[in-house]
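Treating backbone geometry as a discrete language has practical consequences that deserve illustration. The amino acid sequence and the backbone structure tokens for this protein are reproduced below.
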Amino acid sequence: MSKQFIKYSLVGGLGTTGHYLTLVLGTELLAMTPTISTSLGFLVGAIINYILNYEFTFNSDVSHRKAITRFFSIAAVGFVINLAIFNLFTNNIGVNYILSQIFCTTFVMGITFALNKKITF
């Protein structure tokens, strides 16, 4: 495994923590649907990931204006994929929302790493 992918995974762990906290708190404490909670959580995780990946993972010298536009364009793709799979699993198949999100996170992480490495940073 490359050192950069390990850093990306560590940062992703922090972003994922923010995502899952938002998902669980929104669903369990605020009585939001899991779909709304995971959507908000995805945004929280994306913000954490952008800030830390820019500095720590990729040590980027790309301007923030360019990098943030690219990053959130890729995040939008990840968001759509995440939401589609999440809805399929939770609403159509009846899988627990946390298990659904674990699968989605694993799937989307591989796609977004490749795209961010090549395009964003």
The chain has a mean pLDDT of 93. Residues 3-120 form one domain. The helical segments are 3-29, 34-57, 64-93, 97-120. The first helix runs from residue 3 to 29.
